[in-house]
Amino acid sequence: MTDGTGALLVGARRRARESASDAARRARGTRPLAAVAAVFTLAQLALVRPVLGLGWDEIVYVSQVTSHHPAAFFSAPRSRGVSLLVAPVASWSSSTALLRVHLALLSGLALHLALRAWRGLFPTRVLVTAGAFFASLWVTLFYGPQAMPNYWVAVGALIAVGCFLRHRADGSGRGALWGVAAGVALMAWMRPTDAVWVTVPLFVLALAHRHGRLLLALAGGLVAGGAEWVIEAYAGFGGLAERLAEASRIQGGLGWQIAVDDQLRSLGGRALCRPCTGSMPHPVVTLWWFVLPLLAVLGLIVAIRAGRVLPTLLPLACAATAALPYLFMIGYAAPRFLQPAYALLALPVADALWRLVRTPRGRWRPAVAALVALGLAGHLAVQLTVLVHTVDRNVDSRRDWARTADALHRLGVRPPCLVTGYEAIPIGYYTGCSSGATSGNNENTTVGEILRTADRVPVAALTGPGGAPPRYARPWPVHRIGDLEVRVAPAPRPDGSG
């Protein structure tokens, strides 16, 4: 009896030691991923700078939840995910710096969780390299601390695809299924149409192999993340088909349109390339864009030889469907549109780089390793150069909006007020006014409504360089603010007669 008790105690101790050893091994595996996420967070705060003012699209999203500014017009393609993401800060504070820190911390945490979803599918060194590659792209660093949806679609894509593969490899647990649903929901919460494109290969594979649970997780994620967008379509746009049609119109009409050259032009730091004219950036700036798919194909070859095709092929397929509409279906470009594709491509690319470094034997190995290191150093230098240039340019443009707002205040345009015309949304936000447009993609008012508003509060009509003032504002007194013409409606009389 004593011997039996001793054996039980010895077995219990052995299992405890094995459990502790497994926990220590898991902790060692996640520390490098946490380090990548931490460096990414610090790099955002140091290079993008929390004092960077809000951009045009950010203003639209943030103004929906802040009590300090009127809500800007919310057009058909947009989704409420970003607004809810910033609400914990924007709902009570007008501090842009605090909002930037909030988003930088969240984006770093999200990158860590996304990389962890791939543990066991690739070696830790590959995951660290993939995370570092994606995090060091200027577009990732620039948009990580901004109130924009594309980075979060990229994170959701990494989580969804990684957890999908983990569940296929070991279907005994439910954690990976919840990860699939959460990743898809995050994508749909931010941009429902992007979530559909990214998940096409996942649905095809789940249907082909009759994985009912995976199909349920994918569909459940889309419903959970996209339900609000669909409900809003019926409440405010006349139905889902009508909202999709309006979103297509705002984006220039979706259809067969080659935007590959537009994306190349945007790589030099253009936040929005519409219309996308002008010369191409220097070849040094765009070289990585051509090398990326070549390394991804090499990663697939490596995976075939190693007998692990699916963990490489599936992110490649999802990256292709994620990029397809932005390369071949719209007539303009923004570098942030391809962030989900870059995030998914980073994994096979990192695998290929490690194979390049480790495969050669003898005297060739140091030479190849040095060549790869030199290429990565050059790539990082290019990304940081473009990032610094992009940040500086955006700081200047947003300071221009703030200076224009100060000048409008001196002209008597103070909240409550209305700004219409050229760049009305950002200038109106910086001034503390509502913004209005009688035509175009942000149409939300009429001439009659503007004139009636001018009987109650200050109204300013802005005309940009080379533009013509609206007919209703031509009799108003004209002022110059920089290269803008500003017409301010006469102050209403005490009797309200104008």
From TrEMBL:
Q: What keywords does the record list, in alphabetical order?
A: Membrane, Transmembrane, Transmembrane helix
Asked if the Swiss-Prot or TrEMBL record annotates the protein with the keyword Transmembrane helix, the reply is yes
Which spans are transmembrane here? Answer: 33-52, 97-115, 122-143, 149-165, 287-306, 313-334, 369-388
| Presence of keyword Membrane | yes
Task: Report the protein name in the record.
Answer: Integral membrane protein
Q: Which organism is it from?
A: Streptomyces prasinosporus
